[in-house]
Amino acid sequence: MAAAVTIAAPTLPSLHSSSCSLPPLTHRSLSFVAFTSPTITKLSSHRSPRRFPSAPSTSAFSIKAAAAAADKKRVLVVNANSGGHAVIGFYFAQQLLSSGHEVTVLTVGDESSDKMKKPPFTRFSELVSAGGKTVWGNPAQVGDIVGTAKFDVVLDNNGKDLDTVKPVADWAKSAGVEQFLYISSAGIYKPLDEIPHVEGDLVKDDASHVSVEKYMAGLSFSSWAVFRPQYMIGSGNNKDCEEWFFDRIVRDRPVPIPGSGMQLTNISHVRDLSSMLSLAVENSAAANGKIFNCVSDRAVTFDGLAKLCARAAGRELKIIHYDPKAVGIDAKKAFPFRNMHFYAEPRAAKEILGWTGTTNLPEDLKERFDEYVKIGRDKKPMQFDIDDKILESLKVAVTV
Amino acid sequence: MARLVAMQPRQASPWASSSSPLLPSSLSEFNGAALSISLQKRRRTWQPKGALQVTASSAKKILIMGGTRFIGVFLSRLLVKEGHQVTLFTRGKAPITQQLPGESDQDYDDFKSKILHLKGDRKDFEFVKTSLAAEGFDVIYDINGREAVEVEPILDALPKLEQFIYCSSAGVYLKSDLLPHFETDAVDPKSRHKGKLETESLLDSRGVNWTSIRPVYIYGPLNYNPVEEWFFHRLKAGRPIPVPNSGVQITQLGHVKDLARAFVTVLGNSKASKQVYNISGSKYVTFDGLARACAKAAGFPEPEIVHFNPKEFDFGKKKAFPFRDQHFFASTEKAQRELGWAPEFGLVEGLADSYNLDFGRGTFRKPADFTTDDMILGKSLVLQS
Question: For FRET with A334, which of A169, A247, A376, B260 sits at 20 to 30 Å CA-CA?
């Protein structure tokens, strides 16, 4: 689908966004100044003792001093219009904008699509207010969409396979983009007996992301890097994560967890992913040619996550463990996480970028629960067909 | 030659299939000289960003509390090779020195000629105080201390002590659903290892220049805790491996030689002053995975694993499985970042080292005891019939 492109000014191509007209340059400079902050110590370095959840405010990013004009980057984020990763582009754009960089977000598809009625897209006006540009279209036509606008950095937070990313990567290369970043997936690691997944570990031969990673590497960008995320939480998330637990806990329903409940996974606050990406932009030489596990540095068990959600909600918790095969259901449909240990550690980011994480699940989940209630989801009528099937097969009564 | 594995360079061919770690067909050996040399090489070539230079220690007068059983056997050799004067404080129940499997006669004779022994019972606090005061030591390595009271006479005896290096335990961490354990995590004042915690507190309160090392499960040749030995007995007997519950519990093993190197790395290192470090292997492993790793390391076929519910049995005083039935692992990031130390043994390589130098030669500490196995297998056979 061709995007509607309006070339307004003869000199500067303007990227038409129907959500709001582009603020004039001077206005943007003012917003730039407004977002300038004195150098605030990187939040992530306030590593409070983990003994008690004393987290930094979850809305705080790693705010650095406003980028000097010479360091200001022009960044294009190609963003998926749905899915667990969609929110990454939003946080990344916000963080870059607050650091004084120029950001354009190209979201797949049409602005009028129903998909845009879900977060984070519902909050894209915030990007525009901060001086960013939001456009829509088919990434395969990215060159047409952005016209002659120049970019220093491109982040592809969309494609899972080479067919989707190749046009973007090829265009970026030909357009002289210096740094190409790609959101891959930690799901491509081969599950092994030894944990965690560490950068450099074997990946599945047939994983489609792998072909993208290899292709990018061969394009000789001045700097390229791959980021492999897992699951994330955070306001603006497009896909349910902790909500799945809250839905059951606030309705006093048992939480059915497949297997032993000891499976480890990595649930990161998306601000950690965003801060890692920003560091890569600001340290493009160090980040060049590297793979980064884009995750927090703690694992949590399925049971542990349920407990933390219940604690955040201030409610009782009842966990029911079940064997998906015995019950005859597909665990993928019944539970939001893969039914196995799935845990990567951000060792490369710590060592190479000096990144530190700020995810603090006990505190972050409290904030997530507050929002869950604020939007009225706790009162929303819901069906739990699969849950009921599980509980039925285990002869567990649900008192509603 | 020391069977040390070079660190895999990061990011080199990230998508290439890695070959499985070479299992030494020839017997590997621990040679203090080679180990020491490569240790120095490591110091020269790997300077992590921001880490202070490890100061070359001038020769110290060192006392190791213990040192004749496991960790100390390897640590003492490293220290002697570095030129320090090393004394072992033991009751003399075990031989003061024993030639290590694969250790050359020359190396052993050299070590034997240099190592000193102070015979005594560390629970005899008066003796500890007077004998240590009489000798005067620069550095104490406390490898076998369990209770804070045992450390007091040492500190009383040596007011000018330069450094007290303590072997604590990751067992002090409070059990958590959020893992791995970092050094800043909450500790459990009620744990079985609370004596270690109390010792750490005592050291801190006395204003001593202390360093505490918290290993997880230690393994390697001469291990007296039946960790890998427990698996090897069953593998050799062709028996199934009984694993409690799901088998997905995650644990972590650290090779004794890597631990010994860590102990040497903190010696005279101002960065390590009053610091705690988790020291273990680079990766963690599931119970089921560990059974498979032991088989792979020792050249046995993949084992049959039988999962059992511990609640269905009364094993009495016997342990049916060598690990605590929970996730238990710690991050070694702090030591790697601040000290420039890194574990060199991968799990399978390390287990092979242990097998080739110990169990595989017919030596072990505890004879096989399959009593609990038979209880478990008997029951599972009944269920199947």
Answer: A376
How close are the terminal C-alpha atoms of chain A, in Å? 48
| Nearby residues of A252 by Cβ (< 8 Å), 6 or more positions away | A315, A316, A399, A400
Judge whether A180 and A221 are in contact, CB under 8 Å. yes
Residues 6+ apart with CB under 8 A from B380: B306, B308
What residues of chain B score a pLDDT lower than 70?
1-14, 16-57, 380-385
Phi, psi of B355 (to 5 degrees): -65, -45
With a cut of 70, list the residues of chain A below it in pLDDT.
1-70, 396-400
Strands, DSSP E only, in B112-209?
A: 116-119, 139-142, 163-167, 178-179
φ/ψ of residue A322, rounded to 5: -145, 160
Query: What CA–CA distance (Å, rounded) separates B183 from A39?
Result: 29
B223 φ/ψ angles, rounded to the nearest 5 degrees: -55, 125
pLDDT of residue B16: 53
How far is A212 from A166, CA to CA, in rounded Å?
A: 7
For the stretch B195-211, pLDDT in tens is 999 999 999 999 999 99
B250 contact residues in A (CB cutoff 8 A): 195, 264, 341
Cα(first)–Cα(last) distance of chain B, in Å? Answer: 53
- Are B179 and A203 a contacting pair at CB < 8 A? no
pLDDT value, residue B379: 75
Q: What is the pLDDT of residue A395?
A: 84
Q: What is the pLDDT of residue B4?
A: 37
What are the φ and ψ backbone dihedral angles of B106, each rounded to 5 degrees?
-65, -50
pTM of this structure: 0.84
Chain B closest CA to A151's CA: distance in Å?
27
For chain B, say whether A344 makes contact (Cβ under 8 Å).
Answer: no
Residues contacting residue A57 through CB under 8 Å, at least 6 positions apart: none
Cβ <8 Å between A213 and B250: no
Q: How far apart are CA B360 and CA B372, in angstroms?
A: 24
Q: Which residues of A touch B14 (CB under 8 A)?
A: 199-200, 203, 291
Span B335-370, pLDDT tens digits:
999 999 999 999 999 999 999 999 999 999 999 999
Q: Which CA distances in Å does B340 have to A204, B46, B269?
A: 32, 7, 11
If you search the block for the tokens 């005859």, which residue do you land on? A328
Cα-based distances in Å from B175 to B68, B171, B309: 32, 9, 21
**Contact indicator for A248, A201 with CB cutoff of 8 Å:** no
